[in-house]
């Protein structure tokens, strides 16, 4: 081409879909037009701007001097897009993430560039939503790693290689096990043990996650039949599971078919599910609850609109994200936040699980703040055999 170097950017508007669903398509279209105008306004006249479909935009930038400049521009773009939008009769906000790839440093073909800009975007959405990420050399290894995982998942005998570990949630007032969370483990013949934090995002991206969910849930129900009937269990659902009505219907059918009381099961969902398709997630949550199962919001507090979800969706339980627990001993602020969440749950008459408790002092503080349901390495690590024993007396609330 005529440029020695240029950059490709991909932008994704997280939160667009819910706006469309809740306020209707005319408002959605208006939002896209405003976003387009904001972009046009920031970009120099030689930049090529295109809507790639849905809530994705692409930009080809002719002139830039170095990576620092690109990142600064990316930041500016995200900030601009993240400002509230005043539309016909509503004000809405969303979270724009951006990925850059540069020619010729990162790739020399247009496919290669788009693929890498898209990967940088995916990386941004996953690790730093609302920000810009430049595709870097070490991402090349990650791309290769992701596609290795994808391949390994395709080739695996998953019903053989997947298993569940169990981590209890204790009630510190009674010392009893409140419930047990099932956590997936994958021992790949090709790659060894791969952590669920690594393979679920890949499976989610490649559409393999529904299959994993089915295999894991069948295993769980089979194992539950051996456990005392008063033990209830949490099962994690991925974002894709919760927006598909087929999957939620299947879950309920399986529970019934195995003769298990639905109120022994809590499905844990994270905010990413609501970002993807709010209306569908709400329908699924209602469906599960109407059939007697419970639903918990996982990783509460780190998303960008958690309170809205608590307001508009019906949860039986919130799980406070680990990131609030680590700094408990050192910062007053995090103590107040955790206390506020515990009090909010009390007022809403729903359960509040404090997860990620690793130390005695975190345990002490959580109890002092009024926390009752606790989970973490300090009490018990995830293990192949579920812990059904009560807490030792000294760990209970005195
Ligand atoms: P999560 O649902 O938030 O699960 C809690 C994670 O924290 C687990 O990691 C658990 O082992 C870990 N953990 C528990 N106590 C502590 C602690 O005191 N300190 C620290 N640092 N970590 C603690 P794990 O098993 O690696 O799972 C990671 C994530 O993978 C889970 O986060 C969940 O999002 C996902 N995941 C796991 N199993 C499944 C599954 O069956 N289905 C789906 N869709 N996702 C799953
Ligand atoms: Ca969980
Ligand atoms: Ca969690």
From TrEMBL:
Gene3D superfamilies: 3.30.70.270, EAL domain (3.20.20.450). Residues 146-396 form the EAL domain. SMART domains: EAL, GGDEF. Coiled coil: none annotated. It comes from the Bacteria. Residues 4-139 form the GGDEF domain. InterPro entries: Cyclic-di-GMP_PDE-like, EAL_dom, EAL_sf, GGDEF_dom, Nucleotide_cyclase, Rev_trsase/Diguanyl_cyclase. GO terms for molecular function: cyclic-guanylate-specific phosphodiesterase activity. PANTHER family: CYCLIC DI-GMP PHOSPHODIESTERASE PDEF, OXYGEN SENSOR PROTEIN DOSP. This is GGDEF-domain containing protein.
